[in-house]
Amino acid sequence: PCTGNQEMRKDAILALDAFLKDDSSGVSRDMITFYGNMIGSVESEITEPVTSGMRIWSMYNHGFIVKTPGTVFAFDLIHGYPSWQYRIPDSILEQIQVLFITHRHDDHSDSTIIDAVTGFGGQVVMPVEDRHFSRDLVYLAADEEVTLDGLQIKAYAGLHADIPVRMYVVTTPEGLTIMHTGDNQTSETLPEGLTVD
Asked: How far apart are CA 132 and CA 103, in angstroms?
């Protein structure tokens, strides 16, 4: 709800969460239709210019797309449950200049999306421990910094059982800073002293 009533918004989000926590939602026709409609909204909205600040779309797993006046980048995009047989449209994927993958779990890393983004000329950033993917990608170690397509990027090590995780701090050409933590499990690994937008 866009009423400005935070309690109503919270109740709506909790109701949706309760539905999503039900394992049967993965094959629910209503959920697949809802997801398709929401991705359709992203597909139309992402073509609209952002004149200041940023626009962020939650992609319903732990994936996000961020658009600023000068760039489009994303984190942990996947196509959805395999049973849905749904694909994020190319009209969205072709706009992504940099895709960040926090770790190799299937709900955060999708090889068909990686192939699509690189095929459209975008770059993909992954943990250096996942170099076995044998693609021409950007692999970052913990505490490594790079600049790609005007984005200043610093990677931090996260904790997710024994799976290597990267948390990314990304500063856009406009000076906006975004952090994505992947499935980092503890505040003890969060970098100290960061200011993010």
From this structure: 13
**Strand duo 72-75 + 64-67: pairing:** antiparallel
Contact 103, 127 (CB under 8 A): yes
Give the chain's count of helices (H) and strands (E): 4, 10
Average the pLDDT over 150-159 and give the result.
91
Does the pLDDT of residue 136 top 80, yes or no? yes
Other C-beta atoms closer than 10 Å to the C-beta of 103 total: 22
Neighbours of 68 (CB within 10 A): 22
Tokens of 167: 């948390």
Predicted confidence (pLDDT) at residue 1 exceeds the cutoff of 70: no
Find how far residue 3's CA is from the centre of its chain.
26
Burial 122-159 (b: 16+ CB within 10 A, else e): bbbbbbeebeeeeeebbbbebeeeeebeebebbbbebb
Categorize the per-residue pLDDT at 121 as very low, low, confident or very high, splitting at 50, 70 and 90.
very high
DSSP-assigned letter for residue 162: B
Residue 190: CA count within 13 A, CB half-sphere:
12
Average pLDDT for 150-160? 90
Which among 25-29, 75-79, 152-156 has the top mean pLDDT? Answer: 152-156
Tokens, residue 42: 């992203």
